[in-house]
Amino acid sequence: MSLKNFKKLFLIISSFSIIACSQSQGSGSKASSDSLAYLNGGAGEWVLKIDNFTINQTNFNKDYQASLVLQGATPEDLAMYANNSQYQQLYADQLINSILLLNKAEEEKFFETEEAKDFINLSIRNIKFQYYVTKLMADASKNIPDPTPEHAQAFFEQAKQQLTQMYGITAYNTETAPYIAQLYKNTYAQQLVERDIQDLKDKAVIERNTAILGEASILPPQIGDTNAAAIQGTNNPAALPQQGVDNNLLPRTNN
């Protein structure tokens, strides 16, 4: 995962701080609202202190790793970034901003408004969906065989524009080959998850009130379709080659 993609997770970090609900009781301070109490305390040495709110090592590390997982981080990524002081400092800065701003919002009773409640409900649903899809794709990717160098290079040539724009990968060589191979597997894993979702839709009884919704569109999902965006994911752009474009690019499975 590149630094560019890592920085994107801060948008999600902010969302976590807003929507997360704790099952534990806080210390009773203003900083122990439901959206923050899960961070308060923990085992190990303290990592951050904001007024009378303290985040210790275990809670900091769990939250930090959860944000990486949501971005599609592999076990190798987690090992690489787990103790990276540069990224931990960036993450800590965002946590400080989140806590201070959320304290202010709680004082203003901002989240008690109907508009805020609607937004939080939507966010919780989308985060749950995205997290589950991320895990499904990670599991699917593990079962996909590594591409041959020929398949990986063909994949790169087909997706060169998107790989350059999104990841800064401009050539297929020994340095970029491992990343391209992983993106190859991620793209195929995305297609498998999309197939599973389509199977669920085929088996479900779904009715649409066309008097209200209008006739179903045959156009692909557009910007704003949060479910589609979650399936695509940061590391699985929809613009990458899809199955059927060139059947020789994708590994064969028994599914």
| Radius of gyration, taken over Cα atoms and rounded to an integer in Å | 21 Å
Number of helices: 9
Task: Please tell me the overall pLDDT.
Answer: 77
Backbone shape: flat
Q: Kindly report how far apart the N and C termini lie.
A: 29 Å
Condensed summary:
The chain is mainly α and 255 residues long. The protein has helices at residues 3-19, 57-70, 75-81, 85-107, 114-142, 149-167, 177-203, 210-213, 226-232; strands at residues 46-50, 53-56. α5 crosses α7 and α5 runs parallel beside α9.
Describe the protein's topology.
Elements: H1 3-19, E1 46-50, E2 53-56, H2 57-70, H3 75-81, H4 85-107, H5 114-142, H6 149-167, H7 177-203, H8 210-213, H9 226-232
Helix pairs in contact: 1-4, 5-7, 5-9, 6-7
Account of the protein in words:
The chain is mainly α. 58% of the residues lie in helices and 4% in strands. It has helices at 3-19, 57-70, 75-81, 85-107, 114-142, 149-167, 177-203, 210-213, 226-232; strands spanning 46-50, 53-56. The chain has a two-stranded antiparallel sheet. Strand 1 (46-50) and strand 2 (53-56) form a beta hairpin. Helix 1 runs parallel beside helix 4 (85-107). The model is unreliable at 1-32, 222-230 and 233-255 (pLDDT under 50).
